[in-house]
Amino acid sequence: MTTPAYIKSYPVNDCKARRLWGVAHTYCQVCHIPESMLAVTGQFPSALQTHHIVKAGRSDEPTNLCRLCPRDHRIAEGERVPRGGNEYWPTITLGMILGVKRSEDPEEYDRDRLTVLRRNRARSESYDPLPDEQPLPESYLMERMKWISK
Q: What is the per-residue pLDDT across 3-12, written as a single tens digit (0 to 9) for each?
């Protein structure tokens, strides 16, 4: 018997669980701005947002979720966000999001499950594997220090 190339991932579609997960995560996992400070700073138009790490199926299970401020969510989705002058915030790659998830939610981080969710998209053995975890650029680490020290 051969192992099937395609493993059905059965994404979890549970809006209520996703909302409850979001309520329990009260700061941006990239820059660490607390949700309570979003309106005060004037930098961000709304509340924290829940980012799906693997897009295929948008599974609402905790291993596939990352809490981000609107700016960092836009950047993680591939948008270029102005920083001031002619500068833009650095790109946030999938590898960086994986590193953030592992460091901020180690009990929820399940690389094997994320791999299955990502593989489901391709439905074959030849798929784009998850990238290695990467550190965040220095500018985000500086933002973290600003909010951690408050």
A: 444 455 567 8
Name the DSSP class of 53.
S
What secondary structure letter does DSSP report for 17?
H
Q: Which of 29, 127, 14 lies closest to 76 in space, CA to CA?
A: 29
Which stretches of the chain are assigned E, i.e. beta strand? Answer: 49-52, 65-68, 82-84, 87-88
Provide the token pair at 128. Answer: 């784009």
In this structure, what token pair is assigned to residue 73?
């969510």
CB atoms within 10 A of CB 5: 12
Tens digit of pLDDT for each residue in 48-57? 999 999 987 7
Determine contact, residues 64/117, Cβ cutoff 8 Å.
yes
Terminal-residue alpha carbon distance, the chain: 59
Structure-block tokens of residue 61: 């299970």
Structural tokens at position 2: 């051969």
- Tell me the C-alpha distance between 17 and 19, whole Å: 5
